[in-house]
């Protein structure tokens, strides 16, 4: 299983959608395709949907459906336990076989694995039959769906995740440094970061480049830069680790130099002090917490940061306490009535594309699918399931979501906008399939990152050289991969 290059903001679904159901019997095998037609209010039928949480589903989908089509029986199979399982892919497969839902709400990796095993319905035929317009989607979203489906389309994704380079315009102006631009290389961005004066005091810290609010280890930035350059640190099929090379050494050296000087922030093990912000989704279960050190860019203590669209919802806003999907907590209280002081500042910010490699200037490894709606390959209600998937990815929902959701809409007509901001930076790069489709044994990527982070920390602290760190990571990383392949039945 691959490790995504970015921390996802959660599985977000943000509007009501009606569901159409018809009685039919078909599957992706040899059964005849059913004709797709409309549904009257009086028509009877049923649809079984596998969704994260039943309460959330009825709030976002079911209540509107029941009001419009009172004679349609809607059943929801909760997948909450699946997402909390040690192996969500295996658990989703088990649920699919035991419960036999018609339509399924999946993560990107669940989608890829279930498609590989032939458990999802190939949508190509119904897309053509119904003349469903795929041209309205961001091309890279459809490309990624097909790539993850082995060349076929087994689902549709209403939203996607991507990253961009945020920068503080006032800070650049203050120090007379030119703004970053779209298409900059990683080397150029690291050089920009090094031009800012560094402050290491905790409460008065200043970094040239602050890492993503979701970055958890010292290796992640190095891996991201290496992958942008087309470097692979581990090949599961060949069973080899290839980290001890001149190309990787140069990246390690430049990032570690930034860690040492303070021009690049080092991810914090703890939440730090000074406040936290939480955004909840999926009925309150899925949570993204931005706290302590992770708010440094939003509090004006960093010139640049790499992150997704969610943090723009926190910047420059007065946090309202006690309601809504966003909550803030802070150790800094005003002392009157328990009022909490917002840790956020009004920042004159903008974004450009995430840094790229000059040899591949049009792609990024930071793109992923937030969620995928698919159909069970053995569904007995194909028309109903297809109508649900079609509308969940349709224009009406995209239009509503564009006004209320922090997510990026897959439909280009409803791109996220914010006055004066270059939000095209989130949309303009295609998916780097070489990186996004790389597969590694279960748990290996996390173990390798932990190993590499420990060695990097020793170099930063002056306890060893970069060469010694690379040698240790190479040797111990090879042992980790060999063990992981054996455990996965590949060795």
From TrEMBL:
Domain of life: Bacteria
Signal peptide as annotated in the record: 1-23
InterPro entries: Bact_solute-bd_prot1, SBP
UniProt keyword annotations, A-Z: Signal
Pfam families xref list: SBP_bac_8
Protein name, UniProt field: ABC transporter substrate-binding protein
Organism of origin: Paenibacillus mendelii
Organism classification: Bacteria, Bacillati, Bacillota, Bacilli, Bacillales
């Amino acid at each position: 299983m691959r490790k995504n290059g970015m921390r996802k903001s959660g599985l977000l679904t943000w509007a009501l959608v009606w569901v159409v159901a018809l009685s039919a019997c078909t599957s992706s095998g040899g059964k005849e395709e059913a004709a797709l037609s409309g549904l009257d209010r009086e028509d009877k039928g049923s649809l079984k949907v596998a969704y994260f949480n039943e309460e959330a589903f009825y709030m976002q989908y079911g209540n509107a459906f029941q009001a419009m089509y009172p004679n349609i029986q809607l059943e929801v199979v909760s997948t909450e336990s699946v997402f909390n399982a040690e192996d969500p892919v295996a658990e989703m497969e088990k649920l699919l076989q035991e419960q036999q839902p018609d339509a399924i709400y999946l993560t990107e990796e669940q989608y890829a694995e279930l498609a590989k095993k032939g458990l999802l319905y190939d949508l190509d035929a119904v897309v053509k039959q119904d003349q469903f317009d795929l041209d309205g989607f961001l091309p890279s979203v459809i490309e990624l769906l097909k790539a993850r489906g082995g060349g076929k389309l087994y689902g549709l994704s209403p939203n996607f995740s991507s990253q961009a380079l945020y920068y503080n315009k006032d800070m650049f102006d203050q120090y007379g440094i030119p703004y970053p631009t779209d298409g900059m290389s990683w080397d150029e961005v690291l050089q920009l970061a090094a031009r800012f004066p560094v402050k290491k005091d905790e409460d008065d810290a200043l970094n040239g480049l602050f890492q993503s609010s979701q970055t958890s280890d010292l290796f992640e930035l190095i891996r991201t830069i290496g992958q942008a350059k087309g470097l692979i640190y581990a090949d599961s099929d060949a069973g080899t680790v290839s980290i001890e090379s001149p190309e990787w050494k140069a990246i390690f050296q430049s990032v570690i130099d930034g860690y040492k000087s303070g021009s690049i922030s080092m991810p914090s093990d703890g939440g730090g002090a000074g406040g936290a912000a939480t955004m909840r989704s999926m009925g309150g279960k899925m949570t993204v917490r931005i706290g302590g050190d992770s708010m440094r860019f939003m509090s004006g203590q960093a010139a640049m940061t790499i992150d997704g669209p969610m943090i723009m919802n926190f910047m420059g806003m007065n946090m309202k306490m006690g309601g809504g999907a966003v909550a803030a907590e802070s150790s800094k209280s005003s002392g009157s009535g328990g009022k909490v002081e917002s840790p956020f500042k009004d920042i004159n910010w903008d974004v450009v594309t995430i840094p790229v490699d000059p040899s591949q200037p049009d792609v990024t490894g930071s793109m992923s699918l937030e969620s995928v709606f698919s159909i069970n390959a053995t569904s007995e209600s194909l028309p109903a399931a297809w109508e649900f998937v079609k509308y969940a990815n349709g224009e009406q929902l995209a239009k509503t979501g564009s006004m209320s959701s922090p997510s990026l809409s897959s439909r280009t007509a409803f791109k996220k906008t914010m006055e004066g901001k270059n939000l095209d930076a989130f949309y303009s790069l295609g998916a780097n399939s070489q990186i996004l489709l790389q597969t590694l044994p279960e748990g290996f990527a996390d173990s390798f990152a932990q190993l590499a982070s420990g060695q990097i920390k020793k170099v930063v602290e002056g306890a060893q050289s970069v060469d010694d760190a690379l040698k240790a990571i190479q040797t111990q990383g090879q042992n980790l991969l060999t063990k992981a392949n054996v455990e996965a039945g590949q060795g």
